[in-house]
């Protein structure tokens, strides 16, 4: 007889015992604590961001442009988190700074900010602020900024790029130009609403009244209307205004002049051929008028039949006006178009 072997002990199918390797429990506990910490940090960032946006919205409800010092600038602009764009005007509005350009730019900036504040598209994705040099000197030093006014865009993420600094010297600081620049940087389109300005209407009404009154008083003798000299003077004034760039000033709104904040030197001629100051257009107008006057005197000396000595003096005066002021005009042209090789009398 054969002997039976001892029955083998088999585990039931589908019931395999699994054991955690030794030392894995502390690892799981550490992973759990890490997840809790990350979740708490994320929640803290969300709360901080909500507080910042709430504070900015509160300031915007009071004023369309809120002023910032160094601490506010670092908290609301430089320090994360941030999901909004911030437009900042760096300026110097204190009277002792004597920055007339800053005051003019501030007026246009106020128009733009008010247009956004009262727009139906107003939201918490775009804010307008201002840093004055006397209130935030450390901010100017931190950004290595040595001129004012300057407009900068601080995006929601990352650092500002070169295009985030508004090219004020080339474009001007009109509210419409600023709105176009903001639309390019943020995709937020602002329709500029300017407050009503009745000065132009009043001036036009006064001019019409003056002309109408003159015509009424001279109604019995209107021969002056056919005066060629009078119409020639009016035409010359229009030509001088157009050739000196008055229309460009009206469209672009450039500053009258530029004052260097370091040495106080005032520049009346812009150094680039792509822009100009208002004072520069006035200088060009006077130069063109002087050259034209010289040409008129030369023509008068050549066509008149008076005394020869008197005609010679008129000719010399006219020639002097043309030569000197044309040389001055050519020197300005050389200073704007760098590399232009020609000059005459004045370099």
From TrEMBL:
This is Tumor suppressor candidate 3. It comes from the Eukaryota. One of its GO terms (cellular component) is oligosaccharyltransferase complex. It is found in: Endoplasmic reticulum membrane. It is a multi-pass membrane protein. Pathway: Protein modification; protein glycosylation. GO terms for molecular function: magnesium ion transmembrane transporter activity. Keywords: Disulfide bond, Endoplasmic reticulum, Magnesium, Membrane, Signal, Transmembrane, Transmembrane helix, Transport. GO terms for biological process: cognition; protein N-linked glycosylation via asparagine. The chain crosses the membrane at residues 198-217, 229-248, 282-301, 313-333. The keyword Nucleotide-binding does not apply. Belongs to the OST3/OST6 family. InterPro entries: OligosaccharylTrfase_OST3/OST6, Thioredoxin-like_sf. Residues 1-41 form the signal peptide. The keyword Endoplasmic reticulum applies. Accessory component of the STT3B-containing form of the oligosaccharyltransferase (OST) complex. OST exists in two different complex forms which contain common core subunits RPN1, RPN2, OST48, OST4, DAD1 and TMEM258, either STT3A or STT3B as catalytic subunits, and form-specific accessory subunits. OST can form stable complexes with the Sec61 complex or with both the Sec61 and TRAP complexes. The association of TUSC3 or MAGT1 with the STT3B-containing complex seems to be mutually exclusvice.
């Amino acid at each position: 007889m054969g002997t039976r072997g001892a029955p083998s002990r088999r585990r039931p199918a589908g019931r395999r015992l699994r054991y955690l390797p030794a030392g894995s429990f502390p690892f799981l506990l550490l992973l759990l604590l890490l997840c809790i910490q990350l979740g708490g940090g994320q929640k803290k960032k969300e709360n901080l961001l909500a507080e910042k946006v709430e504070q900015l919205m509160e300031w915007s409800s009071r004023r369309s442009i809120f002023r910032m010092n160094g601490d506010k600038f670092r908290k609301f602009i430089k320090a994360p988190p941030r999901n909004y764009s911030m437009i900042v005007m760096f300026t110097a509005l204190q009277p002792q700074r004597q920055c007339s350009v800053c005051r003019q730019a501030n007026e246009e900036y106020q128009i733009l900010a008010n247009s956004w504040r009262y727009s139906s598209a107003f939201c918490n994705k775009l804010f307008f602020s201002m840093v004055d040099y006397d209130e935030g000197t450390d901010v100017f030093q931190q950004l290595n900024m040595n001129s004012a006014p300057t407009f900068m865009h601080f995006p929601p993420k990352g650092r500002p790029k070169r295009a985030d600094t508004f090219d004020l010297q080339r474009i001007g600081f009109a509210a419409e130009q600023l709105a176009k620049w903001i639309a390019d940087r943020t995709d937020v389109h602002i329709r500029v609403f300017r407050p009503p300005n009745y000065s132009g209407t009043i001036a036009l009404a006064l001019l019409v009244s003056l002309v109408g009154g003159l015509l009424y008083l001279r109604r019995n003798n209107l021969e002056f209307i056919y005066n060629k000299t009078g119409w020639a003077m009016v035409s010359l004034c229009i030509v001088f205004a157009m050739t000196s760039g008055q229309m460009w000033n009206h469209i672009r709104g450039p500053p009258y002049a530029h004052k260097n904040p370091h040495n106080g030197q005032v520049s009346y001629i812009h150094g680039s051929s792509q822009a100009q100051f208002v004072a520069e257009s006035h200088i060009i107008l006077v130069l063109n008028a002087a050259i034209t006057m010289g040409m008129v005197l030369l023509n008068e000396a050549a066509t008149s039949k008076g005394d020869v000595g008197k005609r010679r003096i008129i000719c010399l005066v006219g020639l002097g006006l043309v030569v000197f002021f044309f040389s001055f005009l050519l020197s300005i042209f050389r200073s704007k178009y760098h590399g232009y090789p020609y000059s005459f009398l004045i370099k």
